[in-house]
Amino acid sequence: MSVLQLDAVTRIYGAGASEVRALDDVTLTVDEGDFVAIMGPSGSGKSTLLAIAGGLDQGWTGSVTVAGHPLQGLKRDALARLRRRHVGYVFQDYNLVPTLNVIENVALPLELDRTDPSWARQSARAALKRLGIADLAGRRLDQISGGQRQRVAIARAIVGDRKLILADEPTGALDSATGDDVMQRLRLLADDGVAVVLVTHEARHAGWADRIVFLRDGRVVDSTRVANDPAVLLAGA
Amino acid sequence: MSIKYGLLAILDESPAYGYQLKTEFERRTASAWPLNIGQVYTTLDRLSRDGLVTPLDPTDDTRTYAITPAGRAELKTWFTTPIEQTTPPRNDLAIKLALAASTHADLTAIIQAQRTATMRTLQHYTLAKRQADASDTAWLMVVELMIFTAEAEIRWLDHCEGLASRPTPTRSDAPAAVTAPAQSKDKAVR
C-alpha cells in the first residue's frame, strides 16, 4: 500500500528572471516497507522534496498524498495533525528537546496530539524497545552519545505506529561506524513495514536503501532498485 | 605477490595440500579473489624451490606442504612491512572520463550512467554486508573494502561533475601568473 505518493509535483521559487524550479514534475511512489534514498548535488531539490512530502511546504502544484490523505487544500492545523499521526522526521542535528529526558522526547508527539499520557508513555517505551535502547528511557540527553540520540530521534519518529519516516541527512553528524548503525536501524524498520525516505549525499548510507532516486535541477534523472535477494555474491567482483 | 604470502600464512597454522590451500584462501578473503588450482600449485613449486615450504612426504601423491623457518621469517617480514602502492593501477573509468572531457562526448550523461551503475553495485555490497555473519571479521573487512571503494568512486564522480559544470574560465579570469611567463618569453624573443 502506498504511504507517500507524489504526482507531477512542481515547486517554483521566485518569478521571472529569478525563477527557480526547485522541483520539476516529480513523481514518486513509496509503499509500506520501501526504503528510498534521494541523492543529488546541492540545490537539486532533495530537501524541498522532503519538505513537501511532510506537508511543511505548501506552494507546490501537482498532487501529494500521505497515508491516503491528499495534502492539497489542507489548512495548517489539519496538516500538523496529519504530520503528527503519520509522519516522523529524523534530522541531522536530532531536534530533540534538551530539557526533556529520553522517554519524554519520544512521547512528545503523542502528548501534543492529546493522547492519554500513560498510553503515550507506553507507546514511547515500545518505540525505544524497537530501537534497542529501552534501557536509556530515563536518561538525560547529555548522558547519551550522538548515535544514541539519533536512535532516540528515530524512536520519536515511529512512536504511535507511524508508517512514514522522512530522514534528512541523519548520519551527517556521526562517524561512519555509528552512521552504519543508524542506517541498520532504519533498514530494520523498513523490513518491518515502515516506509523510509532518506535524503543523503553519502553513497555509503544510500546503499542501505532498496531504491535510490537521483535528482538534478529539480528533476528525477535516474533511479536504481535492487531486489532484496539473498543470492548476491561477491565472487568475481 | 599476495597469493604467495596468503599460502604461507595458511601454512603457518598447519600443513596443507593444494586444494585445501585454495579453499582456505578463498574462505578467508570472502571469495573476493578466487584462485585457480593451477596458480596454487605453481606458487607452491616456487615456494618449495626457494626453501620457504617443504613437502612433508615427497612420495605422498597428495603433496602436503609445511612452512619452513625461512618461510616463517619471510611471512613475518611481509606482515610487518607496509604495502606501498607507488604506481596507480590503470583505471578504465578515468581514461573514459578524461577522453570524454576532451571531446564532444556528453560528459554529464556518462558520469550519471556510471554513478547509477556504481551505486547499484554498492547496494549489492551493502546487502552482502547485512547478510554477513557479524563475527566474521575477515569477510566484513573485505566487503567494507568494496563498499569504501565504490563510495570513493561515487564521490570522485560527484567531484568530476562539479568540475565539468564550472563555467569555462575566460582569458580575463586567468590568474596573472599564467600570463607573466608568456610576456617575459615574448620579451626574450625580441
TrEMBL record, chain B:
Occurrences of domain Transcription regulator PadR N-terminal (ranges): 7-76
Coiled coil: none
Domain Transcription regulator PadR C-terminal: 90-161
Pfam family, one: PadR
SUPFAM superfamilies (alphabetical): Winged helix' DNA-binding domain (SSF46785)
Region described as Disordered: 165-190
Protein's name according to its UniProt entry: PadR family transcriptional regulator
